[in-house]
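I have been asked to look over a protein record a colleague put together. Alongside the sequence sits a line of tokens, each denoting a local backbone shape. I have pasted the whole thing underneath without changing anything:
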Amino acid sequence: MNQNVPLWSPSPQEIAASPISAFMRLASEESGRSIADYDALHAWSVEDRESFWPLIWDFCGVVGDKGERVLIDGDRMPGAKFFPDARLNFAENLLKKTGPSDALVFRCEDKVERRLSWDELRALVSRLQQLFRAQGVKAGDRVAAMMPNMPETIACMLAATSLGAIWSSCSPDFGEQGVLDRFGQIEPVLFIAPDGYWYAGKRIEVGAKVAAVLARMPSVRAAFIVDYLGSATDVAAGINKAQELGQAIASYEPAELTFERLPFDHPLYILFSSGTTGIPKCIVHSAGGMLLQHVKEHRLNAGIREGDRFFYFTTCGWMMWNWLVTGLASGATLLLYDGSPFHPDGNVIFDFAQAEQMTYFGTSAKFIDSVRKAGLRPIETYDLSTVRVISSTGSPLAPECFRFVYDGIKKEVHLASISGGTDIAACFVLGVPTKPVWVGEIQGPGLGMATDVWDDDGKPVRGEKGELVCTRAFPSMPVMFWNDPDGSKYRAAYFERFDNIWCHGDFAEWTTHGGMIIHGRSDATLNPGGVRIGTAEIYNQVEQMEEILEAICIGQTWDDDVRVVLFVRLAPGVVLDEALEKKIKARIRTGASPRHVPARIVAVADIPRTKSGKITELAVRDIVHGRTVKNQEALANPEALELYRDLPELRA
């Protein structure tokens, strides 16, 4: 495939019909200058934030009182305040739409299929709102959920936030200590959990875990058990303070919803850092910041329109769940999936896409790579004609996977690789529907986001790798960290590297097309001989090899320097012999550079990853160096770490 030819370009008709083109016309009127393309729009959005963000508010139909002022202390990070006089409610904005059409469509592997109309969703939220109000829930209280990605989770979030309560969630596969490490810090008044969940065809009960968590969380006044496996009544009966949710709302009739309008920066969500280097940080996000960032990204960059059918494969412990649910504010139908994306085989998500006429197909880079390696070719077996966008995040999408999307999934589609983080619950760089897609590149910076790449001296660089930064304040910066009264943890997380500049911790590079390549986390960057190398550059090479299913790479302190160590999980029947080692090294040498070639290659049976599916380079690095991994509860498969302890291959 010719590297000088884009993988896809939007047609003139697609560009003209996109919501972002309509927004450009308004921006031209507002600014009094010609804004004819995305680069010009981005430049204006960063230069004139006090005109840009109100235009987003109006264009996206935000419900609430905007107030007079747009931005105060705009040159301070942290410290800037957007819309300081505004009053709004997040849930009110997500429940604007009414009627009999689908609001939520839910599938759980091959076990459950349900749908709720907009009117049915509003009725359920009304009953939950009355229940929560009867429990004394008020603005600022925390409501925590250990839940699958199912309709009740969204309805409970909407009911809680309609009252001004702060929502926090994780997935039900978290261990007891993992749940307590998160929710124990924020002291919720209500706790919501299922009786269990399904994964890979297995029925997994969680009643004993819920009871153990509640016994150690004295702040909880009441717990509600959601029926998923058919045993919620029995589970609730055995737990102090617990009721089955259906029974708890049975006495309430749907009534007119009420919404507590609160300041723009009133806390909405508490999200958590991965927690692999210590107890998770509690990141507090504002209602206004989340709403404005998400509707901007959905409407303009994702091209979401009313009636679209919007899917992202995510759990409730990953920020992509929070990103997905805001799709309701654009009038989109949310397609929810819970369970393994490979049960009974790798076609289940494509079955869902075809059956529900999915328009936005969001997934992880790992899923796309797994489909490719499984030899599946949905392009030949599925009607994906309704899919306009395929989106990827979670880790950098390898160039080979960019090509596979067009060769193996759908030829005419906007492939939007996106990157941001839990820290902002939004994107720094993402898809641009009016621009071509180039292999291996994220298309451009988010509007209103002064995204840049700086070297170690704090100077902007082009065409070379550096730190991903944001040089101006934006609405979805966290309000604070919970239990951080003087703000020292918050400042240390993002602002110590460069004063008054958000330093995100990604190792990145601008391309000649104005796009970006993310080379991995900068704290996992390899430094052999003092040269900075991104781990993604190595993965991009080895994970194209049919002998290798996946890999993880670290820097090992060795002989007063750092040497690159590559761990590989091999395909069935493959042995890591001298010939394969030579092949791997040759591939990396020619595809990346001689500096990237690992000093040691080690075969392993498993690779540790977080609950949201991200490989944990830092945890492996700590184990290899004999250090304790402080919070193994954050891992989906903590037992895998033992595979890396005291390896004889790394002693010489």
